[in-house]
Amino acid sequence: MQIADRLTKIPPYLFMELRKKIQKAKADGIDVISLAIGDPVEPTPDSIIKELCIRAKDPENHRYPTDEEKGMMSFREEVARWYLERYNVKLNPSTEIIGLIGSKEGCHHFVLACINPGDIVLMTDPGYPAYRASILMAGGEPYSVPILPKNGYLPRLEDIPSDVVKKARGLFLNYPNNPTGACANKGFFRELAAFAKQNDIAVCYDNPYSEVVFEGQERLSFLSVDGAKDVGVELNSLSKPYNMTGWRIGMALGSPDLIAAISKVKENTDSGVFNAVQFAAIQALRGENGNIDHMIGIYAKRRAMVLKTLKNIGIDFDPPKGTFYLWVPTPKGMGSLEFTNRLFEKTAVVVAAGTAYGKFGEGFIRISLTVPDNRLKEAMERIEREYA
Ligand SMILES: Cc1ncc(COP(=O)(O)O)c(C=O)c1O
Question: Which residue, of 93, 273, 294, 332, has the fewest CB within 10 Å?
């Protein structure tokens, strides 16, 4: 049977080898602690679950979702209210908002909506691997722009070669950034909007960590600067702020033309999110913002715990202030994969190698803070015993 070329172009999953080792270690009875994946372990707040249960019992909600692929109007109105309250961004729920099955779905539909085969799509290195896969599946050509510590992990748009810019029709960015944790600022947003407008490049500003910031870092939406809505969409999601990764609900916001194009893709692909989940999401956006502060408190403590251990073993650095990941330089200039493998063999603690996010991730590992406190503590004790 033929498998499509577009799939064979997608690079192999770099964690595969490590995953096999983990499986074997677990089968041998070893107590493996994984700090590799960002998926909150705390449950979704009760009021959201209660709302789902009530709405799931209503047969009206057993049919195709209302307003199909766009999402219920009441959900879109609630998203508009949330964006106004949290980011001071005004959005028209009829034309500038669409519901998504998580922001990951939005990344995929963005390229299907605006990229022709052969178009270049810009992304960052290191960067979230799903962008590359989506670009390739849409027939586009990914072009990686390095993001370096000395530039605060922001891309230098002026350094992108002009022949690349000419062929570029799309761009993915995400700050607070996975994997580096770096945050952007309004000055950069203005620069980005001007660059996109001047070069006719559609922006996909993927913002699922917008609420996960520390130490007074401002929560920001790209759409808060003039001109942003003219050049692209922002994606956001209920996954991280409300511990709802499994529920699969998010939103795309911004350019009415792009929202209409994404809506056309969705109209022909899926029929939207289960209404009961949309009602539960309304409850989250309206009534559970306290959960965000609660989770930030938890992550901040874990962050401090990891930073203390790292300092104790000689890794002292100034971490960026966003996301629930720490992007950590490897000790003594060791290669990312070498360190990751060695750490696993010696301590049974799994971290993500920086190179899983691109070649500029070499020399770094990514540690996720979404593990229970006691497991993180145990992981840090093992690391201190081994390396201090
Ligand atoms: C940068 C980035 N975008 C999108 C996603 C997917 O989020 P969602 O659960 O909203 O699909 C993730 C998840 O880890 C992510 O890190």
Answer: 332
| Nearest-5° Cα angle at 13, 36 to 325 | 25
Distance 207 CA to ligand 1 centre (A): 8
Where does the pLDDT of residue 15 fall: very low under 50, low under 70, confident under 90, or very high at 90 and above?
low
Q: How far apart are CA 239 and CA 243, in angstroms?
A: 6
Q: Please give the backbone phi and psi of residue 323, each rounded to the nearest 5 degrees, phi first.
A: 65, 165
Write down the domain spans for the chain.
Answer: 5-43+290-387, 46-288
Tokens for 22, please give them.
């983990």
Index of the ligand 1 atom closest to the CA of residue 248: 9
- Does ligand 1 come within 6 angstroms of the Cβ of 155? no
- Residue 275 belongs to what H/E stretch? helix 275-287
* Cβ 206 under 6 angstroms from ligand 1: yes
Average pLDDT, the chain: 95
**What residues pair up with 232 in beta bridges, in sequence order?**
203
Contact 263, 69 (CB under 8 A): yes
Are the C-beta atoms of residues 357 and 14 closer than 8 Å to each other? no
Res 22: pLDDT: 83
Indicate the pLDDT class of residue 388, thresholds 50, 70 and 90: confident
- CATH architecture of the region 5-43+290-387: Alpha-Beta Complex (3.90)
